[in-house]
Amino acid sequence: MTASSVYIHVPFCESKCPYCAFKSALKGEGDEELYIRTVAGEIALRSAETGRIETLYIGGGTPSSLSVDSWRALVDVIESSFSFSDSAEVTVEANPNSLTEGHVSLWREWRVNRVSIGVQSFSPGELSFLGRLHTAGQAADAAAICMEAGFAVSFDLMFGLPGTTIRDWAESLRRAVTLRPSHISVYQLTIEPGTPFYEKKFNLPDGYGQYRYAQWKLPKKGYCQYEVSGFALPGCECGHNMNYWADGEYVGIGPAAWSYVNGARRENAASLAGYARAIEEGGDALVFEERLTGERAARQAATLALRTKKGIDWDAFKSRYGEVFAEAIIRDLRRFPDTLVISDERRTALSSAGMRVGNTIWSDII
Ligand code: SF4
Known about the structure:
The chain is an alpha/beta fold. The protein has helices at residues 31-46, 68-81, 101-109, 124-129, 136-148, 166-179, 196-200, 208-220, 239-245, 272-280, 294-305, 314-321, 323-333, 352-356, 358-365; strands spanning 3-10, 50-60, 84-94, 114-120, 152-159, 183-188, 224-225, 230-232, 251-253, 258-261, 264-268, 286-291, 312-313, 341-343, 347-350.
């Protein structure tokens, strides 16, 4: 079986945001060349795992921190190794401070049709608190040049920052909606072990109200909540992420990238040096592999599907994971009130209120 979704991880950032636990680092001398060379090696090794590509997502890290020359080399490698469906969704993540006209023009000539911009906030104080290198004005400019180039644009926005109120969050959402991206992802600030924020012992506000505000406000502006973090104008949902939530397979390329192929979840070595060494020695860069089967696989798939507004389609679920596991999950879900979990004979999904307490529900059925 081959995957029709590919993720490529770019492991570089221009600085490390103090809340970030993603696998990324500042570039050292020669790192960019080493990265491009070894990603080419991994793609050559693994291209047989992919069929015709429906979604390609190049994320990070900060893909726009790669020079335009490196991008050209990456595009050549991708084009010579993968074949794409005519309607393939190709997304690139970008930060407002590193995105240049050169990137935009190369991406437009190539097959990029979606750019996800790490906006996070439109408040100067919040951007500075988050250690972001860009201003609100740069985020608006980045959105404008991407839209002018014809890309669908998505914004990442963060809520639940210390000392913030619903009024502060409402202002960031208002500014975002005014710029009319086709997609908005909202994330609550979480304090992860190992990050500089972890040492600070912040008092975080209860994010519930701010999240609820987004659920109320964004649909009024035409953005339908199709997933726990995702709001989109009609037809602008992120196909790549929908494949994740549908328990679809994908090939992950690059340091720290995860793959899900032939029923196995696999993780590549996180450090560029370790990843490059493994690939240059002609092997794979795997450091972890897990194959979920039986009830664990079914529960994992149900949890993923419950992130989406569509929820679980029981006919499809039963034919893939079996009636017995489906019935066990249905019994577990019945314990939640129908204000949180909505079911009919064909589907089960979380209500808007259910999405607000999604973590509790998912951890109960996983
Ligand atoms: S730019 Fe993104 S990936 Fe890089 S450190 Fe900041 S949050 Fe993390």
